[in-house]
């Protein structure tokens, strides 16, 4: 099994448990480890893969907690660096009665992962590199580290995976910057996963069919557009097909997309880039169907990390 490198944010989600309360009114908060690439790394490890996480946390109790959780899953934290000058990033979230989210992002160490921090990573040791943080497109050191690693991955012919993970609350008034930077990765990667909403945003189209056509014409990547209960749209060889979802009674959808990506990358990790490029469509359909299984399993538990404890490659045999 070849190694996978996940790059980007590692943070603590502080979830308000007071139903319908705003953050200013909320009194009770639940601490949950998170960050999209952190979730992907945990899912890969839970499935039995070999994975390392390149991220930055504070030299504080929250940073230590994140490292301990990753190690408990079997994720290598060699490149999970501590920053003595910045606190671990915290994201405060509350679900209002209207269904909208009250969100406050207290950014700290995760944005400080720099090009110099990642220069010593030997990319030749990895078969896959995954970029999965919208925060990687915010100004700062992480943005530079992102582009540096992508450039090196392209040069070294390493399989590149990308999930834009758009967060409107991070890019209010600056959505175009997110779109432009995402296209740099969409046109360089070998695989990307987007939601149906992200597909419309990134292409500027109002219909999914039109958005899919843009991806087919403007990228060389194989891609997956997640459609919730309606399955996953797979784009391959200038064609599309729908891979059915797995019926479940969802408890919490948090981390389902990250589990999906983790499952895709886990299944590809025993192959070379050359082998992946010539894989037949039927094999990709099986990979996406298995990834749908991983996403569905995650929805059956409360909290992403708790759900990942119930992941194993045995779900692919069911």
Q: Could you explain how this protein is built, in words?
A:
- This protein is of the alpha/beta class and 318 residues long.
- The chain has one domain (3-317): UDP-N-acetylmuramoyl-L-alanine:D-glutamate ligase.
- Helix content is 36%, strand content 23%.
- The chain contains eleven helices and 13 strands.
- The chain has a nine-stranded mixed β-sheet with strand order 5-4-1-8-9-10-11-12-13, sandwiched between helices. A four-stranded mixed β-sheet has the order 3-2-6-7.
- Helix 6 packs across helix 7 (208-218).
- The longest helix is centred in the C-terminal third of the chain and has 18 residues, at 281-298.
- The relative contact order is 0.14.
- The model has no long low-confidence stretch (mean pLDDT 94).
Tell me briefly what this model is:
The protein has eleven helices and 13 strands. It has 318 residues and is an alpha/beta fold.
> Radius of gyration, rounded?
18 Å
Q: Say what the CATH topology is.
A: UDP-N-acetylmuramoyl-L-alanine:D-glutamate ligase
CATH first level:
Alpha Beta
Q: How many structural domains are formed by the residues?
A: 1
Measure the end-to-end span: 22 Å
Task: Tell me the β content.
Answer: 15-25%
Mean pLDDT: 94
Q: Report helical residue fraction.
A: 25-40%
Unreliable parts: none
Largest sheet: spatial strand order? 5-4-1-8-9-10-11-12-13
In CATH, what is the homologous superfamily?
Answer: Ribokinase
Q: Tally the helices.
A: 11
Identify the overall geometry: globular
Beta-strand segment tally: 13
Q: SSE order in H/E notation?
A: EEEHEHEEEHEHEHEHHEEEHHHH
Oligomer: single chain
**From the coordinates shown, what is the CATH architecture?**
3-Layer(aba) Sandwich
The biggest sheet amounts to:
9 strands, mixed
- Give me the secondary-structure category: alpha/beta
